[in-house]
Amino acid sequence: xxxxxLADTVKQTDFDKMGAELYRVVSDLFPICRSITGDGVRExxxxxxxxxxxxxxxxxxxxxxxxWTVPKEWNIRDAYVKDSKGKRVIDxxxxxxxxxxxxxxxxxxxxxxELQEHLFTLPEYPDWxxxxxxxxxxxxxxxxxxxxxxxxxEDSYEVFVDSTLQNGYLTFGEYFIKGQLPDEVLISTxxxxxxxxxxNLSGIAMTALLAKQLSNADLRYSYRFLFIPGTIGSITWxxxxxxxxxxxxxxxxxxxxxxxxxxxxxxxxxxxxxxxxVVMNILENSESDFKLIDFFPYGYDERQFCSPGFNLPVGCxxxxxxxxxxEYHTSADDLELxxxxxxxxxxxMCFTIVNVLEENKKYINQNPKCEPQxxxxxxxxxxxxxxxxRKFQLAMLWVLNSSDGHHSLVDIxxxxxxxxxxxxxxxxxxxxxNLLKESVG
Length: 441
Ligand code: ZN
Hints:
Elements: H1 12-29, H2 39-51, E1 55-60, E2 64-65, E3 68-69, E4 73-82, E5 88-91, E6 106-111, H3 112-116, E7 119-120, E8 142-143, H4 146-151, E9 156-166, E10 169-177, E11 184-190, H5 197-215, E12 222-228, H6 232-240, E13 248-254, E14 263-266, H7 274-284, E15 290-293, H8 302-305, E16 314-318, H9 340-359, E17 362-365, H10 380-384, H11 389-402, E18 404-408, H12 409-416, H13 420-432, E19 436-438
Parallel strand pairs: 7-8, 11-12, 11-13, 13-16, 14-15
Antiparallel strand pairs: 1-10, 2-3, 4-5, 4-9, 6-9, 10-12, 14-16, 17-18, 17-19
Helix pairs in contact: 1-5, 1-9, 5-9, 7-9, 7-12, 11-12, 11-13, 12-13
Bound molecules: zinc ion.
C-alpha cells in the first residue's frame, strides 16, 4: 500500500472535528475591534498564539517601507452619537462596525446636517451596517443601517469617538516551520478587519489551524505563515525581508474561506507557476464546481507579493471572492454567513494543496533509451494488484516517458489526464525500483 505521507496524518473525521474548532476560533475572535494597527490586532494574535506559537513583531509608526510609511497606531474604547435626550442612537458597544475604522477622536455637538456628512449607510440593504475605513485620510464618522439613518430627526446630537491615533506600532504575526529544504511556502492572511466573519476571520482561523496541523508533520518544504494587516502589513513584511524572499517558491493568500460558495483560485501574476498548476489540478479533480481567475492588481496582499519588483509565485484562495457576495463588508458578514463545514472543507483544500506541493517532485528516467522491461523487474506485480490496473500501467508509462528532469508529477498528471495520486504512486514504485531518480534543483 502506498504511503501517502502527509495525507495519512489526517483523516476525514479529523477534518469534521476541525470544522467545529475553526468555527470556535471565528466566534471567539468575532467581538474584537481590529484595524490595521492597535490592541485589537494584538489581542487577536495573542489568541492565535494559543493555537500555534506565532511570533509577534512590532514595527514603529513612521518607519519607511518602500513608498509607504507605517501609520500611527489607532485604538478605540468607545464611540456613540447621542440625541438631545441623552439616548445613544448609534452605539459602538452594539457593533464595532458603527465607527468609521481609524476614526480620529471627536467630541462635539452637531446638527443633523453636519452629522449626516459623517454617516455611511447602504440604502440597497437597509438592515445592514456597512464597514468603512479611513486609514490614510484623517476623518471621523459612523456607519449605521439605512433604516436607523432614516429615523434620525432634526436635533442637536452629541458625537463622541473615544479613540487615539498616536505614534505606536504596527503589529503582525509570523510562524515558521523548518522543513528539509530552505525553500519556503508562504501562506498569508489579513487580520485587520473588525467583526466580519468571512472577510477574514475565516482566513485567520484556517491559516492558524493549518499551521498547527503542519507543525507536527515531516515536511520537505519550510513553511512561513503571516498574519498581517492588509496592504501595509505585506508591504512592511516585504520591506523587512527583501533579502530572503527569493526562498519563497510557492505562496497562497487565504481569505473569505468560510461561506458556502465554491472555491475560487486567483492565479499568480506569473500565471504559470507551480502553485497555479497544483491548485488547478486539485480543483479540476474535485467533485465541486470552481472558478479560476487570472491575476489582476486588485484584491488582497497578492497585490504586493506579485508587484513587479517581487513577482513572487503567490496565488489567492477564496470561496466567493471579495465584493461578489452581498454581505461583503457589512454587518451581515456575521457568524451565520460562515459554517463549520465550509471552514473544514477549506482547511482540507489547503492541506491537499500542501500535500501535492510536498509530493510534486521532478524525476529523471534512469533507463531512457526505449522502455525498460517492467516484467523482468517484477513491476507487473504492482500493476496487477492495483484496483485500476489498466490506468495504473498507463500512469507508469507516462511517468517514465515524461521524467526528463523538466516535468513535475503535476505536469505529468495534467498532460496524461490521470489523477495526481495515481501518477505519484507510480513514481514511488519506479523510484523504489531505481528506474527514476529525483531531480534536485
Ligand atoms: Zn475586506
